[in-house]
Every structure is written in structure tokens, then in C-alpha cells.
Amino acid sequence: LGVIEGYTVKINKNSVGKQLQVFCQVSLKEHNLELLTVFEEEVVGLKEVDSCYHIAGNYDYLLLIRTQDMEEYENFLKYKLTTIPYIGNVQSSFVMSGIKEGV
After folding, report:
1. Which residue, among 55, 66, 57, 54, has the nearest Cα to 92 in the 3D structure?
2. Pairing mode, if any, of strands 49-54 and 87-94?
3. pTM of the predicted protein model
């Protein structure tokens, strides 16, 4: 009881024009509950963000971003992600191929 939490549909992102996958690490300039909440609320509303994780280490968040191409990712960074208050640093890593992907 309680093992299955729901059913989902897994969409092939390549078939809907989202070929570029980017792992984006974000650190905030300051750390307090209000700023964390503001960041999380803003990120949830961004359609390019496939997943968002609050992590420990050198960065505060790990985002999986899916866009059509590099130009769309650049526009996402310039006009959406970096407009969120108190972002201190963003590091992007581009996926070349998937070896094992989760469900």
C-alpha cells in the first residue's frame, strides 16, 4: 500500500522540438526562506524547466532545461532565468547523449 504514487505519460521531447537538454546549476546570492521561496515559485512557472532540485554543495539548485536549440536556451537565460532576483551564478552543462534516463 502506498508504493505506486500515480501514473504518468513520458513524452519524447525530441518529437516535440525540444532536442537541447541542459543541466543548469544555480546559486543564489543570499540564503533565507523568503529568497528560496521566491526562486522556487518563479522557476515552477518557466515552461523550459523540465525538473528542478534543491541540492547541497557548491550550487543551490539543479535545473533540467529543455529547449529547441542554443538560441532558444540563450533567450531563456537572458530574458527569463536571470531576471529572477538574487541569482548569484549560473553554470550550464549541455547533454551530448543520454546513457540511462529515469522514468
Report:
1. 66
2. unpaired
3. 0.83
